[in-house]
Every structure is written in C-alpha cells, then in structure tokens.
Amino acid sequence: MPGVSSGGGGGGVGTAVSSPPRPFRPSRYVPVSAATTFLVGSTSLFFCFTCPWLSDSVSSIVPIYIAVIFIFTLANFCMATFMDPGIFPRAEEDEDKEDDFRAPLYKTVEIKAIQVRMKWCSTCRFYRPPRCSHCSVCDNCVEDFDHHCPWVNNCIGRRNYRYFFLFLLSLTTHIIDVFSFGLVYVLNHRQQLDTPHAAVTMAVMCVAGLFFVPVAGLTGFHIVLVARGRTTNEQVTGKFRGGVNPFNKGCLKNISHILCRAQAPRYTGRPYMHQKMEVQPPFLRPCLTEAQLEAKILDNGIQNDQHSTRQFKSGLVLSDTAGCLFEQFSKSSLDQMESQSADAEAPPPPKPDLRYSGLPPADTEESSLLTEAPPTPSMFKYRPPYSSPGRNHSALSHSNKMIRGESLDSPCPSILKSSRQPSYRSEPSSLDGVTLVGGGVGVRRGGGERGEGSGGPGGAAGGVLGGVSGHSLAGRSYTSYPSSLVLSAAGSRSSSLRSAQIAHNPLATLQSEGTTDTSYKSLANQTPRNGSLSYDSLLTPSESPEFESAAHELSPQKPPGPFPSSAKAGQPKVVSPSSPLKGYTSPFLSAQIAQQREGQLLQGSATFSSPHRAYLRAVSPPPPTSPRPPEAQHLIQYGQDLSSRALRNTSSLSSSPGARLLEPPISPPPRGLSLSKSTAYTGETGSQYKLRPTGGGTMVVGGEVGGGHHAPQ
Amino acid sequence: VPQTHSLQDLRQQAAVAAKVFIQRDYTNGTLCQFQTKFPSELETRIDKQQFEETVRTLNNLYAEAEKLGSQSYIEGCLACLTAYTIFLCMETHYEKVLKKIAKYIQEQNDKVYAPRGLLLTDPIERGLRVVSFPMFRTSRAGRRNAT
C-alpha cells in the first residue's frame, strides 16, 4: 500500500510489533496450576465442610465475608496472571538507525538530579526506559519491571503490579481467615475429629498454615517495597542501596502512586489508526533568519547533520585520526592487494578509494558510507558466505582465502550473518570493542616485532578510541600477522602471540573473513602462516561480524541472502564488536571499514613475502602511539578472550554478539594449532575478565566477552 | 496543491527521506514527557515555536492522563468493588486521554505538519518511548499533476 500512514514504521500494520511467538513449555504452567488448585480447591472444601457450621454457630456473616475476600483474591489473581504487565513492543528498524555502531551501550539520563543509566536492549532494540527491564522468561522488555512471578506465570510490571500487590494482601488475609475459622471449628469439634468434616477442615488448615509463611513473608516484603518506592528488581539488584532512589516520592505518595494511579494503557496489541495523510511536495518552509541561513550554508546537508548530531564522544579525535590513517592505508593496501591477488579472478575494481577519499571526520565517512551505495566488490569478495554459526568458520578461513584472492563469494551471506546479530549491543560486545581497540594498538606497535604487541595492550585503556581507532589499529597490528582478526581483539591477542611470526599481511586476516572455509583449507602454501592464520582465524570470528556489518553498511546491494530480514534488522547493529566501542562512542563504523580495508590489504600482501613485508612496514607507520597501548592491551585481551571463547563454546550465545563472534571460529586445518595456542592464552587471560560495559575508556578487558551478553537478560 | 485521494495520488506520495525521533524526557521520573528540544534536522522544515508548542501540548495531555486525581481514584475503587469486571464495559481514564491525544495529533498533522512534509506519529505505537517524525523527500521532480 503506497499510502502514507502515520502508523509507526509501516503502513498496514495492524498491531504494534510484539515479541515473537514462544514455544509452548508446559513446565511453566506447573506453579500457576498448583497455586490455582490450592487456592480454589482448599477454599471450596472449606466452604463445603466448614462454613455451614460457622454460619449456624457463629454468624452468617462469616461465610459471606470469607466469600468476598476469596472473590477479591481470585480477581486480583486473575488480573495479575492475565494482564499485560506493560510490555514494550519491539522497536522498529528505523529507530535503530539513530543508534548506529557508535551508539554506546548505556545512555545516562538525569532524573531529579540523579544519574540513571539506560541500557540498550539488544532484543528489543531500544534503550530501556528507567525502571524497565527485559524479562528473559517472557522475552520482553517490561515497563517498571518488578519481577517475573512463576505463581502467576506472568511478569509483574507497571500495569499489573497493583493487582499483584492486592493479591498478596488479600491472599494473606484469606489464609488467616481460613485458618482462624478452621481453628474455631476444630476447637468446637474436639470430640468429633474423626468425622470427615473435621478431617477436611484440618487438612485445609494445614494447607493454609503451610502457605502462610511464604505468602506473608512476600507480602511484608512488598509492603516495604511499596513504601520505599522500589521495585523488586531494584531491591534485589541493589540499585539504590547506597544512593538515593529518584523514584521515591515519600511513603504516602508512593502508596497512592501504586494503588490509585490510573490504569496504564497497553502498548502491544493496539489497533493502529492509520492516518490517511496526503503528504505531497511542495512543502512549506519556515522563514529562515540570517543566522539560520548562515548555518545552513556551512552545513553539509541533512545527512551529515544527522551524523554530526550523534554523540561522538571522546573517541572522536582519535577515531578521526585513525580513520584518516586507515583510509590511506586501506586505499593503498587495497590497491596493492588487488593487483596482487589476481589468483583466480580478475581484480575487482578498486572502489574503496571513492568511498574513503577525503573523508577526514569519521562521522562524515560513516554518513557517506551509509548513504552511498559503494559497490566495492573487492571488499565483499572476501566476505565469507557462511551461515551464522559458520561465520566464525569463515572468519577463520579468511586469511587463506583472501590471500588467494579467490574468495569472490558474495559478501552478502557473511554480511547478512553479521547483521543477524542484533545483540551486538550487549555488554560483551562493548567489551569486545574495547579490547579490540587495545589489541589493535598493541599489535600494531609490535607489528612485525616480537612480543611488542603484547606490550601495547596494556595501554589500551582507550575505549575512548572507539571502534574506529581501535579497529584501525587492530588492523594495522595485524599487518604483521596473516590473521584476519584485525578487527577482533582476538586478533590482537594472536598478534601479540604471533609477534614471533613474520609479519605477513594483517590484511589477510581481514580478508580471511571473507574467504570460505574451503578456500582456507585448500591453501597449502601457507603453512607457516597457516599456523598463525589459524590462530588468527580463531580471533577472526570476533572481527568478522564487525567486518561484515561494516561491509553490509557499505555495500549498496541488498544481498538476497537467506537472511534478508535479519540482515536488515541487524544492519544497524551489525557490528557487535563495535558495540563495546560504542561504550566509548567511537566511530566504529569507520574503524570497521578501515579494518576491512586493512584486512584486504593484508591479505593481498600475504601473498608476497619480502615485498609484502616491506609494504607492511611502510604501511604500518606508527600512528600516534599514545592511544595505542591501551588499545593494544584491549585488543590482545580481547583476542585472548575470543580465542578462549571460541574454544569453549560454540552455539550457546545466539543472542549476544559477543557469543556470536566467538562461535565456531575454528576452521578445520589449523584448528589444532590455533586451539592449543588459544587455550594457552585463555588460561592467562581468563582471570582478567572483568566486563565493564560502562562508557568511557575504562574498559577492563578480560571479562566474559562472549558470555556477557547473557547477563542483560 | 494536494489532490483528492486517488490511486495515482497515493502512488505519488512522497517517500520518507529521514526520520527524526523525539525522545522521552525523564527528568521528572517515569512521568510521560517528551523532550521539547528542537532537533536540528527540522530546522529547515518547521518553526521552532510550532514544534515546541506541539510537544508541550502533548506533554500536558499525558500529564493529564497520568494525574492522580479524583477520576483515577474513583475508577480504582469502582474496579475493586466490581472485581475488575468494570474494565469490560468501561474505558479507563488513560485510554480516554489517549484518544484525545490521537485526535490532537491527527489535527496537527492536517494543519501543520503534512503541508511541511512532516508527519507526527503517535508515540503510543512505540510504547510511549519516542515520537517519530518522518520527513518526506521534497525533491520530487516538478509538481504533482492535477488529476
């Protein structure tokens, strides 16, 4: 339907985007069934066996009173169970584009003079509003998330917390009533305890007494929470333990806020009202003042505006520099590579130059990259066309493949793959990003030299450098190594390890991503490099997603791969490793691009020995070294992390980008080698892992990069 | 001059060039308020005052929806007394205000934003997290043919 509708995202959509259908899990229904059975069953028995005597002997009001309380309990129970807790619909893709690679994992917002962090939800694709949390059981972000209650089999959030709280209160009251009146009955029938009525009453009393302790405890707990204006989630995670709760309005106001607030609307399942708007040019324009006109003249255009208005924090300077540097390198290296890598196919037209020429600011570059459709076959040709799990595989095999220059495989699959990792924004990825930076730096410095790379990483505290610098640096460091993990920290790690090795073509690593496994395996004449390559290939997986994502962004074509939707969806977030860089607000995209280019260059250079070497040395001029060390450090650590991950795990982390990166990174032939090497490193670095996804340069490398992504859930 | 709706007209609808997102303003907690900061992308399209006035009106409407007043209190009591069955027949106060907001947005679009190549979308569609403002491409060749 061509009409323009005001409905968000796309005309014709009937309801807001909601979570995908979940598999039926009967085990989820056991607690709620048990709760229902006990509640209804016990009360029914009580009514049948005890109440007749009570109404006769005590008063007829008693059963009525108990019935009223019971109905109230049941009503609140049903509301708590069936009511939408305040689920946020998934953000549509257009919203993603605002937060691209450079977007940080956390956004800080000030609420009543208190800094509150909003975390990026990789599943739902938006920054979680304050007090919102993602429920892993329901796989939804819930507003004012309290907890997921198994007894009602539902999340408790903004919309149904009141009913849950009243349910607890009424249930406690009901239990007390049943127990006391049952006791009255039993005390009055001490001589007839063998009758069924008495027996049933005693059984009901037992059930009531049994449930009283936990229910009353929970009720008391929630009374305290309501009085304090906290949610269970905040209490349990200790968010405001030492500090002030900005949501605390005072005891009375908190209580009235919970009990008397208007029923919040649901966000999912709303009927869209499609506004039939006739929106046609020519459009009216406001009268611009002198100042505005002046600003407009200086302005680059809306696209650049959009990019320039993005947060571009501390990493900007460095990234710019890095970006420029990379542009130079990538251009030259690509040229060289292309000329050299004409193994099987004609060299692709050198497109990168078009893209990268004269784009000093990273954001401009990014914007131009994003807005242009640069058909750079050379870059994509090295994209590994693998499925998501195979991504890492291909990454591993890149280097060889790239070297051979035969991987003209469509970058699409790989790009798609990488783009299919929406969880790039998860913490681990952010961490990854940082490490990448560090690693890259370190490696580069040690590029070609032994072990110097390892020295670099130490200083790689420069999360600030962001993806761009980090990646670019990483790429460079990899120049010394044929591994394609320029992008990934793993690469840095390997690079440091490989410092002993001859610096072949770091670009090869980048390229390796694009290569297929087969080509990788088939490379026979790469033995010495293979060893390093394999090592690098382990590291590569982490980079490949970034690589691919960057390529995806750059590629004009929409690869009609098997994952068009995922690619599209993941596109803005494609680069998972960059997400950590986001924490440092680095122009990740430019970094990625730089890396890619470097990778390609490296690969091309890998085919030669001495001339390549010379080239490499020339290529890797020492950029500002100050930021390097931290980057190298990070990269190396990241690389280590990645390698360890790759070794350990394979498929577990589907949702997190970090995991993806680390997925099956090991390609067949050198696997043995790389594995052993990586394991060695894993042991070293394993203890260092401390993921700190907070923004700023204080990335502590070494956390569970891959595994961290689970944490958000 | 916009023509009546016809298939050809619809096909000639301008395409979206960009989208601007107005984020929530959380300085007062989780109360639903949107940022009144004028995004730079709209500078060429609309007056700052107009935009701010729209957002402010929206904020006021949302504040009215969430107000802890007699309306919400009575509604809550009634709901309790009827074991929440009243929700089956009655519309909550918030929903009523949401309808009002939708009407306001429609009216603003008709009068102010569509002629300028913008469209204000109802934030409820995105969970009240963000107001999206698609900006339509203005570079269509020539004028629409009157059909």
TrEMBL record, chain A:
It is a multi-pass membrane protein. It is found in: Cell membrane. Residues 389-400, 416-429, 508-543, 595-610, 640-657, 675-688 have a biased composition (Polar residues). It is an enzyme of class 2 (transferase). One of its GO terms (molecular function) is protein-cysteine S-palmitoyltransferase activity. It comes from Oryzias melastigma. Residues 117-237 form the Palmitoyltransferase DHHC domain. This is Palmitoyltransferase. Keywords: Acyltransferase, Cell membrane, Lipoprotein, Membrane, Methylation, Palmitate, Phosphoprotein, Transferase, Transmembrane, Transmembrane helix. It comes from the Eukaryota.
UniProtKB/TrEMBL annotation, chain B:
InterPro entries: Golgin_A_7/ERF4, Ras_palmitoyltransferase. One of its GO terms (biological process) is Golgi to plasma membrane protein transport. The keyword Lipoprotein applies. It comes from the Eukaryota. The keyword Lipoprotein applies. Residues 20-131 form the Golgin subfamily A member 7/ERF4 domain. Keywords: Golgi apparatus, Lipoprotein, Membrane, Palmitate. Transmembrane segments: none annotated. It is a lipid-anchor. Its main location: Golgi. Signal peptide: none annotated. GO terms for cellular component: Golgi membrane; Golgi stack; palmitoyltransferase complex. May be involved in protein transport from Golgi to cell surface. The ZDHHC9-GOLGA7 complex is a palmitoyltransferase specific for HRAS and NRAS. This is Golgin subfamily A member 7. It comes from Oryzias melastigma (Marine medaka).
